[in-house]
Amino acid sequence: xxxxxxxxxxxxxxxxxxxxxxxxxxxxxxxxxxxxxxxxxxxxxxxxxxxxxxxxxxxxxxxxxxxxxxxxxxxxxxxxxxxxxxxxxxxxxxxxxxxxxxxxxxxxxxxxxxxxxxxxxxxxxx
Length: 126
Known about the structure:
Elements lengths: L1 H24 L6 H29 L6 H23 L6 H23 L8
Helix pairs in contact: 1-2, 1-4, 2-3, 2-4, 3-4
């Protein structure tokens, strides 16, 4: 249940933060602070399916891999899924460089969520 909630609730927020950092780094700030606040619901709307795919992959590999290989596969899955979703949702042609850099959004999202879901409590703590 912890894994599902991490990917579902935290995943799109992390992805949106990385997306905004990517936009700021490229000099494209749309709407300032109000645009940031208004963009957050859209991040959850468009980030839901990629988050569920990353959660499913992470859940499937939970007992088959150690933590860091699983985290890296989740980052790779997030990279591919976010590019796929962007290509599905957009109706305009996008330069290849923008497509490839957009994958970083899903990669960081998958990496963070997979890493947090793999942390086990120390000792006998619940």
